[in-house]
User: What shape does this take?
Amino acid sequence: MAMAASACVTVPPSNVRTQTPANLGDAARINTQLGVDYAGQGRFDIAEEKLRRAVEQDSSYAPAHSTLAYVLAQRGENAEAEREYRRALSLDGADPSTHNNFGVLLCAAGKSAEADKEFMLALRDRTYPTPEAAWTNAGVCARKAGDVDRAEEDFRQALKLKPEFTDALSEIAALAYNRGEWLRVRAFVQRYERVAKPPPDLLLIAANTERELGDPDAAKRYEIKLLREYPESDQAVQLLRKSSAP
Assistant: This one.
């Protein structure tokens, strides 16, 4: 999620006892910042508590609603998360991060057409700092909906903006793999390796691809890397079962 926290906010002194409307607005912003911080640590229960307090303190503060929506989605409370996203957008319909994150939620719910509209609304904002994320999310949603050509175009758009964006590289490599385009898979895997450590699914794709290309030594190197770095992964288990099969 592109949920960038602004400058760190300092909690006001404890001797401030009265809460005027202005103070409540400040308190809502502080609690929203705390919610962002706790969510970033994966402490969603405390994050939700802070964000609900922020909404009570200033129900017109859109970031409190959008961040609460994100936390609720992480906890699987999707219906309430959707309501919070819609509330946030009713208060600030121009926020690109909220559009992007709402699109992710809608896509997970199978609402691909509505999700795509949200991604495109995020991309309409030229100040959005991570458009490559929205393009990649749009591509993932298109792939889930069965539109592989649209998905590849979206991933390419992401890579035009940020050639080293690993999420798009792994997604487009998987598309090429499913099509049997082995040389393209190798190229995307190599691009990924230049900027980051490949995840287990990409290592298995790389190993299978090298075998298809007639390089068993390279395939073995990827398999060893998979087993050493991700021994508990589903991909490692799959590889071990395959190697032990008669």
User: Anything to note?
Assistant: The chain has a mean pLDDT of 91. The CA atoms of residues 171 and 206 lie 13 Å apart. The chain has 13 helices and no strands. The two ends are 44 Å apart (CA to CA).
